[in-house]
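Morning F.,

Quick status update on the modeling queue. The single chain you submitted on Monday has been processed. Sequence for confirmation:
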Amino acid sequence: MNAYDFDGTIYRGDSSLDFCLFALKRHPALIRYLPGQAAAALRYRTGRISKTQMKQAFFRFFSALETERMTEDFWDRHLEKIYPWYLVQHREDDLVLSASPEFLLQPACDRLGIRFLIASRVDPRSGVFRGENCKGEEKVRRLREMMPEARLDRFYSDSLSDAPLAKLAEQAFLVKRGVPRPWTSS
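Structure tokens below.
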């Protein structure tokens, strides 16, 4: 089984940010959430709240949208941002592990033929997290919870925060600017 981070790894960019901009273009009144989002980002940067809490405050605007319908429209326009190298090596048993919301990535995974997805559990109607942000050690915990016997042949990520998963794989690759290179521990 090959495992992949999503944003910056097989997807060029950050799908959550792209979704927010996509929603804002269609619903300019969402700008009213910007002060709360900025305040949460500042509180996170100064160590007063966790990343999960910051992202939850950021996703609060979901309450003003029909997010399930909008995600389909979003992927109609953004699936082209999947890196070609991934499409060439896609396998039936691929697994995506991501900090992005599960409901946002599920339509993309369905369209790409990716059966296994582990991502942040976020209520699409409120932006409230149903657990921890799926990042770093949380990805390993969630992998063991969902697939206790999983063996990772290859793992790909654009972030060193995924080192815990890289250590589990027979081979690991760090993706920079859309190009996978062997992961080094430096």
